[in-house]
Amino acid sequence: MEFKISKELISEVKELIQEKNDHKLELVLNDIHHADIAEILDELDFDDATYIFKVLDSDKTAEILLELEDDLRENILSRLSPKEIAEELDELETNDAADIIAELSQEIKAEVISELQDVEHAKDIVDLLRYKEDTAGGIMHKELVKVNENWNVLTCVKEMRIQAENISRVHSIYVVDDEDRLKGRLSLKDLLTTTSTKTAISDVYIRKLNYVNVDAEDVEVARIMQKYDLEAIPVVDELGRLVGRITIDDIVDVIKEEADQDYQLAAGISQDVEADDSIMELTKARLPWLVLALLGGFITVRVLGLFEGAMLEHGNLFFFTPLIAAMAGNVGVQSSAIIVQGLANDTLSGSLFNRLIKEVSLSLLNGVILASILFIGSHFLLNVEIMIGLIVTIALISVIVIASLIGTFIPLLLDKFGIDPALATGPFITTSNDICGILIYFSIAKLILGF
Amino acid sequence: MEFKISKELISEVKELIQEKNDHKLELVLNDIHHADIAEILDELDFDDATYIFKVLDSDKTAEILLELEDDLRENILSRLSPKEIAEELDELETNDAADIIAELSQEIKAEVISELQDVEHAKDIVDLLRYKEDTAGGIMHKELVKVNENWNVLTCVKEMRIQAENISRVHSIYVVDDEDRLKGRLSLKDLLTTTSTKTAISDVYIRKLNYVNVDAEDVEVARIMQKYDLEAIPVVDELGRLVGRITIDDIVDVIKEEADQDYQLAAGISQDVEADDSIMELTKARLPWLVLALLGGFITVRVLGLFEGAMLEHGNLFFFTPLIAAMAGNVGVQSSAIIVQGLANDTLSGSLFNRLIKEVSLSLLNGVILASILFIGSHFLLNVEIMIGLIVTIALISVIVIASLIGTFIPLLLDKFGIDPALATGPFITTSNDICGILIYFSIAKLILGF
């Protein structure tokens, strides 16, 4: 069951904007979820979108703001005063508000912060701005329920009620000491079944719990939360003080982004772009890899030039270069993709040596099967002399083995040096394997035919 | 903060197994999270792993079972009697139990089901077995809290307490009519703040809520839950009856799997495999794509053969074939990856025609930049005659434009016909673009040089 934007709805909205019929506009849009309104705004021009923004209440527009495409959000924010922006942010959770502030220009940022009404909220937001985007601090929020270990159950329940007011999903109650250091967690069930309201919290709380440091990488937090099946995890600073909380919906975004990024890198796209981004942005993400591939191509031209001597007598050797290069590229990408995923999911076990041995066995098996097809095919389909067929066949096996070793080794090497191994997949592997493949092929040919 | 398996722990565990010191073994392992014990078992041989399995309590081993690598789970299950397996399943949530039963052979399946102790639980599990794996029915569980719209608040609270007993996370209370049809949901807050316990539920429940049909695709459910930021969503059958519930942690797995699968397809791996799978499994996933690429390679050999006439006079044309083929492949993969992600994230807007126009502009821009580098490079780095340089340059621009159109068009076409567009990326696109690229290149050369 999902709302679908109809053309009729869009034209109705446009008409109402034209008529400046704010009342009717509010009536129509109030029934629609903010995520869907964001989609409607994406279909309108900037003026109309901003108009709607000013008509609706800030508790609704704040949520819409989060769902908008980046460029539309930027454009709408540029048409709002710092005070209006602050009104939106007052409605948002701390981490969402901090994310939006981070997108603003330096001078507006300060003005917006000074216009925030809720002082506690403002402090929390400013605090969050300190952390790097891809760390636990960068994705956590300050909304959480915490109680002091020295309180009794009665005080605790009272305090919890006050704190929980502003929190949509409680998940867990954290226990801290006087210095705000995280000591453990409290189960709501235990709290409610404790017979005496005078029981000290320190007698009932659970001392064992998962937490992460504020500097932990976001993908690491995602891995821990997935592994232990957690819906929320507390975040502590260097002194062990409870500074925030990360919930599973934040982690869903991290997982999605990380996977999208790996996929794009494998396809030779180096920045987070979408099909609807501008041609300039898409070019910036795509061109660098193509230039790399082109320079690699220059090398293949030179390598082939080295074997020019074979052209007169064995010209048809050159017919097989794209085939050899393609096989090297494909095998290399397969091998590196498996390693990249293994590293990402932390499922690689055993030593490097064993892994390379396994890859050699695997590629030998695949290589022999493919070489047999090639040998038969070259004879019956391509009508090549037996000798050339034999050379291509031997070359194919060698190229497949080497390509798979390169594909396995390079991402592992990058990972060792703290570089994202996904960089290895895509154009980088295909280009280097093209070069190696062609070099190996013609070297074998030269060895056998002696040109 | 995460537990890390140490070599010392592994050897301690192995020793305790050897000594058959069950008591100490239990003591050591009881402090460790089940997800971590699963990792320890992965490091042991099957006999030792099974031994631990029999020592620990079934509430712990049941959870461990879920976390094990597929082959180890299969192996351990094969060493347990149907009664022992049923004991494990009695401890699990319905959907987890159903997933494990689905992996069993047909004859054991029936025996295990007949050994299940909790009849209601068994009924629910059998019910779940009916649904296809990648649908809402396949990922939902039966654990949920539901109340009848005709009850009053008092009855409702009493019933809820009983139902919530077996559920780790309540999230929402669903309201149904006498026919079990989903009518709405109840907020726990509203329920507790209603002044009279005699108030009818029908007076307080929220009639608007998101739900999905039991046949909905799992990726669709994931999209809806992400869009509306839901932690749980109810599932209804064809008659609108409430049959289950999907929670966000089930969806995290769906998102992860879907992203992994797209990534693997882009890399030319057609089944869900991991680095630690057997060589046979890896070959099954990798070889088909390589065979496809090889057959594509045959075509490139034939295509080049068509232009054999050029070899004597313009042999160095052949030096550029890998370069042209590589550029065609890289551009094609970039274009198709952007479309595949756009389709997956539902962010593609505008008509097919506009999209192709945009792609042509983008690729012309990239093509001209790359061709300029190539033209200069071919002259100064590769020492090729101006004429050949010119031909290669013109060919590169044409090839880039055509390759990007193919890369854009094919995934859109596949999607239209209900085929996973991710199939288009990887070897399929690179191979077809190799062939087209080479054909275009030599056709242009022939046109200009007239061989």
UniProtKB/TrEMBL annotation, chains A, B:
Keywords: CBS domain, Cell membrane, Magnesium, Membrane, Metal-binding, Transmembrane, Transmembrane helix, Transport. It comes from the Bacteria. Pfam families: CBS, MgtE, MgtE_N. One of its GO terms (cellular component) is plasma membrane. It is found in: Cell membrane; Membrane. Its main location: membrane. Residues 140-201, 205-261 form the CBS domain. SMART domains: CBS, MgtE_N. Coiled coil: none annotated. The chain crosses the membrane at residues 287-305, 317-340, 360-382, 389-414, 426-449. One of its GO terms (molecular function) is metal ion binding. It is a multi-pass membrane protein. Acts as a magnesium transporter. Homodimer. Belongs to the SLC41A transporter family. This is Magnesium transporter MgtE. It comes from Flavobacterium seoulense.
